[in-house]
Amino acid sequence: xxxxxxxxxxxxxxxxxxxxxxxxxxxxxxxxxxxxxxxxxxxxxxxxxxxxxxxxxxxxxxxxxxxxxxxxxxxxxxxxxxxxxxxxxxxxxxxxxxxxxxxxxxxxxxxxxxxxxxxxxxxxxxxxxxxxxxxxxxxxxxxxxxxxxxxxxxxxxxxxxxxxxxxxxxxxxxxxxxxxxxxxxxxxxxxxxxxxxxxxxxxxxxxxxxxxxxxxxxxxxxxxxxxxxxxxxxxxxxxxxxxxxxxxxxxxxxxxxxxxxxxxxxxxxxxxxxxxxxxxxxxxxxxxxxxxxxxxxxxxxxxxxxxxxxxxxxxxxxxxxxxxxxxxxxxxxxxxxxxxxxxxxxxxxxxxxxxxxx
Length: 358
Prior knowledge:
By secondary structure, this protein is an alpha/beta fold. It has eleven helices and 13 strands.
């Protein structure tokens, strides 16, 4: 059995987070023990922990770690230290909104508890309770997204997905892969195509790994093969996840998602985005306002230490791109399915909490 992506052990005072190191998969299954804030911060930045929903939960537990061993003088001091830890964690990955949104909600939670007279020790327990509740809600959201998304899959369908939006990017069943797992439970036969997703191969390394482990039929293709697979009629639906969804329905997801959406539209194939409502950003009006993380050139120039790009050449390495809402056939969340999402249709789904805390 594969270890869980994240497992908390112990109390608020002396607990630790056990995380599956996703940089080592599929060759090595390794669990890291994170015992302080810098360790969680590093794990998030290095993609040991990755995926928008998982980042939110990891951030919440990271706050619990960040307040261990730091004696607060008062409730106000504890809240101030929580804010400091939240700012550090939020800066680790700028694009996925689940991380800063969860951190903002956690700070609001302990601030409210402090106003009721709770002391530092009680506030620390409140942080842990918040993290556990967030984890439970994300697990439930994954199951709901799976049920709603599976309704859009027929027996015998070919499905194309990009990056990794399964159990490895969440604490539950997954986002974009959840409908595939539920459809398989229902006895539907699927043929799944996984884009390899360069430059870090999350599709080839992670999606193919977990789908094959679950006994599903999965075929890995290079990103440049997606158009040919669609043109041959091998795909009846595209399912992808999201790291941030703007108020108008524009979607930020792993680099390569936007051209896949264009190809799907060209070939008349439905393009589904599957994400919990925690991925909706009420403070972001459109895709142009979404911060796009740019990562180290070495990920492209020398993957796995193999030099492929001459030293004199520049490298551009954005980790995400933005798919305009007009290319999204439907948004699947734990609340249901929203056809052709736009600002008006999305408004009732927007979370009320502040999500911009960078």
